[in-house]
Design brief:
alpha+beta, about 65% helix, 10 helices
Length: about 375
């Protein structure tokens, strides 16, 4: 606002000074009306930001009326410079160019009709006024282009910052889900083993201590392993720098899983088909996690005595299948996350998971995941 007020005062002062200059040519002397026009031209500048086209037209009409009355000439380019600049800065270059050409053409025609020398009108005054108005319009357009350029840079900077923030949020969410899935897969299995052995120890501790003692030992070792896993996970979550993480076990640890299930009273038979030795680490780990969760669900929910695990690699696919002889109920019917976690693991590897009751009873979990060609 201070800039506009300063420009308004400058325009009024310049027009008044030009009107006060006593030039020969038979024009009327500058009177109160001329100075009033100078004040009006300055006052209209105050609206140049809100209505640049209106200010431009008002300035042009006022200048035409001023010279038509016969007041001392003040020119066109200098009194109208602020109006033409403001219109161009606001993006109204067409209006600024059109009004400028109209004023120059009208002024030149009137002066020629009044008998002024064509050489002076067309050879000096017209080019000089046209050059000045063109420079003013070009300056306004340049300032606008520079402002838009800075605005575009700022917009892109904000967009990049927003995208980085969104990417960081996505990575954080993916990591949170991954940690939750790992904890569920590992801790849920160990707690299922602990629960079964605790029940066995409770039933036999008085009547059959020889049976209860191994169950208690299994509870002790499984609890220690679960606590160790929790400590490692918490250490990773709380650390600010890189923390060495123990690699997750793949299918090479399947025998340990089978022995753990056997200790809990579930016989697990394993069938292997195809070359399972050269599986990528991520696929091997995911397959073991699926088997671990499926066997955990059998221990917790199926009331089964036997389960069959089938591993088959054929035609670029690895199929993992677990079938039990239990009651066939869905292990996640109570709102758990086991099957959901298995599906998420398969989806990350572009695989799929199917579950449901088997044709001869029991429950079936089958996961299929593509195996990349080693070549």
């Amino acid at each position: 606002m201070r800039v506009d007020a300063g420009l308004a005062m400058l325009v009024a002062a310049v027009v008044a000074a030009l009107a006060a200059v006593d030039l020969p040519g038979g024009s009327r002397p500058a009177g109160p009306g001329a100075y009033l026009v100078a004040v009006a031209l300055g006052a209209v500048v105050l609206a140049r930001r809100r209505a640049p086209v209106v200010v431009l037209l008002a300035t042009a009409v006022t200048l035409v009326a001023y010279h038509a009355v016969g007041y001392p000439p003040v020119g066109l380019a200098v009194p109208g410079a602020v109006a033409f600049y403001s219109a161009a800065e606001a993006g109204r270059i067409g209006w600024a160019s059109g009004v400028g050409l109209g004023l120059l053409g009208l002024a030149s025609a009137v002066r020629l009709l009044q008998g002024d020398a064509p050489g002076i009108v067309l050879g000096y005054d017209l080019p000089s006024n046209a050059g000045l108005l063109g420079a003013v319009v070009a300056l306004g357009a340049l300032v606008r282009a520079r402002r838009e350029w800075h605005a575009e840079i700022e917009r892109r900077t904000r967009a990049v910052a927003a995208e980085r923030a969104a990417d960081a949020a996505r990575q954080l969410e993916q990591e949170r889900v991954r940690v939750a899935r790992e904890l569920h897969d590992d801790i849920a299995h160990r707690l299922a083993v602990i629960s079964i052995h605790a029940a066995l120890a409770a039933e036999t501790v008085l009547d059959d201590p020889a049976t209860a003692h191994p169950a208690v030992l299994t509870i002790l070792s499984t609890t220690r392993a679960a606590l160790g896993e929790l400590r490692r996970t918490v250490a990773v979550l709380r650390a600010s720098g890189d923390v060495p993480v123990t690699p997750a076990e793949g299918l090479e640890a399947l025998d340990t899983l089978v022995r753990s299930a056997a200790g809990a009273g579930l016989r697990v038979d394993v069938e292997r088909r195809g070359d399972l030795a050269g599986l990528p680490a991520d696929i091997s780990i995911a397959a073991r996690r699926v088997l671990q969760e499926a066997i955990t669900n059998v221990l917790r929910h199926a009331e089964a005595r036997r389960a069959t695990v089938t591993l088959c690699r054929h035609g670029g696919l690895l199929t993992v299948r677990v079938v039990d002889d239990g009651r066939g109920a869905c292990s996640d019917a109570a709102g758990g996350f086991g099957i959901r976690g298995m599906r998420e693991r398969m989806a990350l590897l572009r695989g799929c998971l199917t579950t449901g009751s088997g044709p001869g009873g029991g429950f079936v979990v089958e996961a299929t995941v593509p195996v990349p060609d080693a070549r």
